[in-house]
Amino acid sequence: VQQVFRQLFYMINAVALNNLLLRKDVCSWSTGMQLRFNISQLEEWLRGKKLQQSGAAQTLEPLIQAAQLLQLKKKSSEDAEAICSLCTALTTQQIVKILNLYTPVNEFEERVTVAFIRDIQTHLQERNDPPQLLLDFKHTFPVVFPFNPSSITMDSIHLPASLNLDFLHKV
C-alpha cells in the first residue's frame, strides 16, 4: 500500500509541476498559495492514514518548492540567495523557467526582472543539475516485496507427478 501511494504521489507531483512549467497562466502568487494548501491537505491525509513513512510526501518536494518559489519575494540579491538555498529539489532550468513565466495577478505584484533571473543563474551555476526541464511522469519506482521465510522445509514438500516437473530432483 505504501509503495502504491508513493508512486501515485510522484505522478501527482510530476503532472502538476510539468503543467506549472508549461503554462504561463498558472505561474502566479495565488497559484502558489493554492498549491501549498492542496499539498498540505495531501500530507494531512497521509498522516491520517498512517502512511507518512511511505515516502509519498517526499515525492512532492519539487512541487512544494515550486509553490514556495511562486510565493517568495523576487527583487533583491538576498531574495535570490534565499531562493537558491530553498529550491534544492528543482533544477536550475526549472527555477529559471518558473521565474520567466511568473505572471502578476494584481497591481501590487511586479514581474520578475531579467537582472534578478541572471542573479539566480549566477548563484546556481556551480550546481551540476541534469539539463532536464520536465519530470518523467511515467517513471516507476521499483516494487519491493518483503521476504517472509516459510516454516515449511523444502524436504517436506511433495510435488505431484501431474505437474510434469521432471526436471526437479530431490537431493
TrEMBL record:
It comes from the Eukaryota. InterPro entries: Dilute_dom, Vascular_dev_regulator. Residues 1-126 form the Dilute domain. One of its GO terms (molecular function) is GTPase binding. PANTHER family: DILUTE DOMAIN-CONTAINING PROTEIN, DILUTE DOMAIN-CONTAINING PROTEIN YPR089W. This is MYO5B protein. It comes from Rhinopomastus cyanomelas (Common scimitarbill). The gene is Myo5b_1.
